[in-house]
């Protein structure tokens, strides 16, 4: 099997078999397939798409590219929230603590800036001394003791997504629905949470602007997550204007702290409480 055969096949709009997708992801992780061939395949997928079956197979293989955390030792419900991104979106820093305060453990694996959207990890790193890369054992200790930890994927957790995430950002393939689904879910499944709630943005500041595309993404996230054994739900929320009052890494952290003190902007808090409520209902 050769990478160029997969590129040709997807370029013609044909279905990639499970073993072909597995070959690609193994090659990405081992560096056996060069970036330029993965970039070509990403672009072919961007134009030709993936079926739900292909998306499920790709996501499963990306999950298996690293370890999957077992959180049963926590003895309490576990949940994670993910946003498809937007301008001024700092909701993870509000929703996560709200849910943790209600007794749900929140192991959150997040990403960096993608396209024009700010990255959760980039915002956290504006806090002096905050480390977004932790050994797995330390990550789990913090979840157990504090109730929530937000870090990035390591070489052991969803490493395939780490490499493809960076490649998508520089190849104009950010807005591919199947690639969005596989990227989000590979991180979330690997982190081990039993409940997943997705904040799918629509509007001028979102990655996807077509309403039908947004609904398709929301449906596919939930469908694939459930096929992989998770309880899941998606809320479609407005990103036609920046959320809250602040835009920028350090400024958004400051605003999140204000929100947790009860001083959050109305639009930001409305979505935050809706997402937190959805998580608590599912757990």
Which key terms come to mind for this protein?
283 residues; mainly alpha; three-stranded parallel β-sheet; two-stranded parallel ribbon; 12 helices
Main sheet: which strands, in order across?
A: 1-4-5
> What assembly state would you assign to the polypeptide chains in this entry?
single chain
Largest sheet: 3 strands, parallel
* Overall strand count: 5
What is the typical, i.e. mean, pLDDT? 93
State the helical fraction: 40-55%
Q: What distance lies between the first and last C-alpha atoms, to the nearest angstrom?
A: 43 Å
What is the N-to-C succession of helices and strands? HHHHEHEHHEHHEHEHH
Overall 3D form: globular
Helix segment count? 12
Uncertain runs are none
* CA-atom Rg in angstroms: 18 Å
């Amino acid at each position: 099997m050769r990478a160029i055969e997969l590129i040709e096949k997807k370029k013609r709009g044909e279905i990639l078999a499970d073993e072909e997708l597995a070959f690609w992801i193994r090659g990405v992780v081992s560096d056996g397939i060069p970036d330029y061939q993965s970039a070509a395949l990403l672009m072919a997928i961007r134009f030709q798409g993936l079926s739900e079956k292909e998306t499920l197979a790709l996501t499963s293989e990306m999950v298996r590219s690293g370890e999957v955390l077992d959180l049963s030792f926590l003895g309490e419900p576990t949940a994670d929230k993910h946003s498809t991104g937007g301008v001024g979106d700092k909701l993870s820093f509000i929703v996560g603590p709200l849910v943790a305060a209600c007794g749900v453990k929140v192991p959150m694996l997040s990403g960096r800036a993608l396209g024009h959207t700010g990255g959760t990890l980039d915002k956290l790193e504006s806090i002096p001394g905050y480390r977004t890369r932790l050994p797995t054992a330390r990550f789990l200790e913090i979840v157990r003791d504090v109730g929530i930890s937000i870090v990035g994927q390591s070489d052991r957790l969803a490493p395939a997504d780490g490499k493809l995430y960076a490649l998508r950002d520089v190849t104009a393939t950010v807005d591919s629905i199947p690639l969005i689904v596989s990227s989000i879910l590979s991180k979330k499944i690997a982190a081990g949470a039993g409940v997943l709630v997705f904040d799918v943005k629509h509007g001028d500041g979102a990655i996807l602007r077509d309403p039908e595309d947004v609904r398709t993404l929301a449906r596919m996230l939930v469908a694939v997550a459930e096929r992989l054994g998770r309880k899941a739900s998606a809320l479609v929320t407005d990103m036609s204007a920046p959320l809250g009052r602040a835009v920028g890494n350090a400024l958004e952290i400051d605003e999140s702290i204000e929100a947790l003190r009860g001083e959050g902007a109305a639009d930001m808090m409305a979505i935050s409480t809706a997402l937190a409520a959805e998580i608590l209902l599912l757990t």
